[in-house]
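Late entry, flavin-adenine dinucleotide complex.
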Amino acid sequence: MSPGLPRLRLSPSRSFVYLPDYAQIVVGGGTAGAALATRLSLGLEHACILLLEAGPAAPDELKINVPGMKGSTLGTVYDWNFTTVPQTHVKDRVFTAPRGKVLGGSSALNLMTWDRASEGEYDAWEELGNPNWNWDSMIHYMKKVENFTGANTPTYGSEGVGFKGPLQTVINRFIPEQQLLWIPTVEGLGVPKNLESLGGNPIGVMWQPSSVEPTHYHRSYSANSYLPIAGSNLVVLTNTRVAKINLVKSGKQQRATGVTLSDGTVINAWSEVILSAGTIQSPGLLELSGIGQASVLKKAGIKQKIELPGVGENLQDHVRVQTSYQLKPGFTSFDILRYNATYAAEQLQLWKDNQFSRYDYTGSAYTFVNWDQIGVSSTMVPLAKKAAAASKSVTVHKQLEYARDKAVPQVEVIFSDGYTGSKGYPPATSPLFGINLFSLIIGIMHPFSRGNVHISSSDPDVKPTLNPNYFSNEHDIQAATEAIKFARRIATSAPLSGAWVSEYEPGLDVIPGNGTGTAQDAAWRNFALDTSASIFHPVGTCAMLPLAKGGVVDARLVVHGTKNLRVVDASVIPLIVSAHIQTAVYGIAEFAAEMIIKRPC
Ligand SMILES: Cc1cc2nc3c(=O)[nH]c(=O)nc-3n(C[C@H](O)[C@H](O)[C@H](O)COP(=O)(O)OP(=O)(O)OC[C@H]3O[C@@H](n4cnc5c(N)ncnc54)[C@H](O)[C@@H]3O)c2cc1C
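Prediction complete; structure with ligand written out below:
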């Protein structure tokens, strides 16, 4: 067992499942589902709650637990391994869309960034028609999630962080020498230092926490933080896949009576069923149960029970592009763990022995900026207006307000130690094998592209048709182009510029110069089209919005047209925020738990 990990309590036998009297069934033991089920078990002591997870529990899996092994679970048995359809606006490239298939869900696979967006972006959820879903309530619930270690230190102040929650967060104790150049370099470009960026104002350059336990330095995620504190009235069943929600007509509405598993077993819930299967699968479960667009259901051969056109639509995601730089001799990066097996083994042993180790490393250096700060408002604001004019979506129109708002970040740049680009680290046969790199990853915070995800069959085992429609409007590709140019500006500014010898990707010879110009813009644009990827933040496919605005759930997270079927996960976020989204997902779970405990369906 990995050091310091609390033990999970799993149901000893499948026979538990046949209990006739579950109050709530939560489908999906991921980020939101495990947190929600835990809180329900604590708040509804006399109710029996069932949490169903398709994947296994993996409490001893080093690839999950060791922060420095982040990313190594992608493409493994712990990943659903979804892919998009060819993206027509991105040279027909197919993008990967990893999702956790393990107790803890995507919180077991993610890269552990722990941050928040600006106040106004949560207030926007309320302004879109969801009473009480605003900054004040979200920060209350998001703080309830976490226990942050490191307040009032040189890396963080005290605003916007919580201290009593089960999820452990810390700003990395391992900061490579080259990363120390980050803040002064970005400050030199006119971006202010902000060491309280989780308090509702993320603009600036900063250190940010990771979801990492601060004593043993293991990943802190929903399965090892929430579930161990759950009441004995929570039954957790892993390797158990739900095929559909069972519904009966009740007046003009549908009432959920329970679920059918993929092996045909029926389990009943007398109070409610809650979907927490995530942005890619919660809409699919609705569709498999007869809730969704008539055309989608007809094509899949499923009888429609509720016409709900918003199901699977409004898909939004953050896109990234990265550049990388070969460090001067004398600097050592995280890459040493890939080119020096002996050193890597020693460092892993140190981690196992609970000692300071390079395997502690997660990224902790970021900047979040608006268009003014990178000097491109005059290009980007008209493009945002054009994108909004072409759309009927209420979320798109709300988003237009952000384009001029100086408090709302449009671009994120992450300093990531080691190589994280697209062409690959030099192979062992290359003379460059053994170089040390750092990468600058840009993320577009408010893309106007909207995509969708739908089932393509009534067979739950068939993967959904996922189309995020990346770069489907000019705003988004131009945003990526401007953001990468900004990243190049950072890299070529002192003092960071003094730490590297050459740009490994794309290369100063491939795209020369630091200024702007048609040829240079075209080259960066092409680079973005060739190398962009997702940051893996899909949201919005069961949007919390009024029915007339294309919503799937109401402000109580109840699916429109049903009495007692809720969705609680990233899919309910109506409009993506300028942050990595796990803090919001956990916050939504905490908010939902309190709502359900006070007023079950
Ligand atoms: C590789 C990666 C890196 C990321 N990095 C970061 C980061 O650094 N910081 C950050 O803030 N966010 C990050 N994210 C995003 C963040 O982790 C997710 O948005 C969030 O965890 C989603 O939570 P969720 O509860 O909506 O879904 P999940 O956590 O994905 O949970 C869904 C669960 O439902 C289960 N399930 C699905 N269908 C069924 C079924 N039919 N029956 C039973 N169970 C089912 C799944 O197996 C899964 O466990 C990353 C995501 C990924 C994938």
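Confidence is low (pLDDT under 50) at residues 1-9, 11-16. Will revisit in the morning.
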